[in-house]
Amino acid sequence: MSHRSQNNVAKVGVRLTTFGLLCLGASPAFAHIGAHDAIGLRAGFAHPFSGLDHLLAMIAVGIWAAQMKGNAKWVLPLTFPLIMVAGAVPGFMGVDLPGFEIGIATSVTVLGVLIACAVRVPTRLAAALVAAFAVVHGYAHGAELPRQAAAGFYGAGFIVATALLHLIGLSASAFGNSRLASNALRLLGGGIAACGVYLMAGAV
């Protein structure tokens, strides 16, 4: 990788990290909402960052999309948050979904393996798999909605956070197509899969 490319990657990483920290630390100021809504937005945004399972899965979706290339680079990062919202509804309504913790841990493991093996499948199949994982993640978001929070703002918060994590994963494509970059991503995928196995053991 050229020195210029390395600088560009570093700048992207710094900007994304700075944006995330600002969003977490700032007190949102909206003209027509109160503290109740602000708590909802902030709590929703912070939630994906509060658990290793959500964090790794959402970054992994972006990384896998970057590996898949083509339409997958925008289809997968759009599919996950859209289906996640649908999955949040039953969680918010208190519908019981047994084993959703194992489902979330499984999503981390499977996505890590897909990255480690650099698996490429038709975009529709990849989107269907990502959608299935999004349902359980969305359910967890909905079930863990703080009682004092506004559902709409909470949902908006975790959607923005999810998109940011997907972008962080997608930034992996900025490292180029060299064998070194490819091997580094595959090694990262192996680490994600190992974390998923650890999470699965804790969920059983």
Automatic annotation (TrEMBL):
Keywords: Membrane, Signal, Transmembrane, Transmembrane helix. It holds the Pfam family HupE_UreJ. Residues 1-31 form the signal peptide. The keyword Acetylation does not apply. The chain crosses the membrane at residues 47-67, 74-93, 99-118, 125-143, 149-172, 184-201. This is HupE/UreJ family protein. It comes from Undibacterium arcticum.
